[in-house]
Structures are given as C-alpha cells and as structure tokens.
Amino acid sequence: MPVEFSIGTKVISLGRVADPVVPLLVLTRRGYAPFDFLIDTGADCSMIPASIAQVELGIDLTRSPQETFFGIEGGGLRVFRGWMRLKIGPHPLRVRCVFSPHEHTPLILGRLDLFRHFSVLFDNRRHLIRFTKLTSPSI
Q1: How far apart are CA 59 and CA 128, in angstroms?
Q2: All domains in the chain, ordered by first residue
Q3: Is the pTM of this model over 0.85?
Q4: Whole-angstrom distance, CA of residue 88 vs CA of residue 24
Q5: What is d(CA 57, CA 29) in angstroms, rounded to the nearest whole number?
Q6: Cα distances (angstroms) measured from residue 17 to each of 35, 63, 96, 113, 136
Q7: pLDDT-derived band at 123, boundaries 50, 70, 90
Q8: Residue 80: what are its φ and ψ, rounded to 5°?
Q9: Is 2 in contact with 130 (CB distance < 8 Å)?
C-alpha cells in the first residue's frame, strides 16, 4: 500500500514553488523520532547535519570516512559518510548518507537507496508525494 504525504508550498523571489518536505521517522538513540526531510530527486544521496548524526543518532564521526562532495555551487564540502535508518510509513529503510559540518544544512532524502526500494510519484494535481514500496529491489 502506498504511503502519501501532502506537499506544501513556499514563496521564493521568482514566485510560489512546491516544497516537498515530509516528516519521516529516523532511528535515534531513543528510538524512532520524526524529522522533516526535503525529498530531493536531484540529490545523489541523503544528507543531514553532522550535529544530528552525533547527538541524535549517536554516530561517532571520528570513526567515519570523509570525502569532498560537490554540489550545484561548484565548491567542495568536506563531509562524513555513514548510514541512517528511517521509516517511510511502516516501511523501514537503511540509507547511505553524508553528514555535513554545516549546522543549517537541510535534511535531504536523495536517490541513493531510496529509488532502489521505492517508486516516488509527485502528484502536483493532488499536492502530494506517493511512495510505493517495490516488491523486489531495483537498480
């Protein structure tokens, strides 16, 4: 059964735009807790602030591999690599992600691991995002 979330909107300098931010449950030190993620099909992988990884998820970043990621701005960002466990509705999902040292980094759910387990539909007529669990992983 598909899991659906409403899509909000926000106003930017060019006008009103869809704002696909959805509440997802993330496994933390104290069990599952809700966090708002931007569903970004243009992002290769998921990303959250390193402070959340350390404080909420209990990840020891001193033991995490580092690498430089490049985004739309062209400049490199040194990040930590790791994993995060979350739920999309009742469906558990383990995703590879990076942890950004920038405190104001938005929580992003990207394509890596997500597209392997879910079909994602943006229904702009009904203002919702639909996640449909795939019966067998793809890609």
Answers
A1: 32
A2: 21-133 (2.40.70.10)
A3: yes
A4: 6
A5: 5
A6: 21, 39, 28, 26, 34
A7: very high
A8: -105, 145
A9: yes
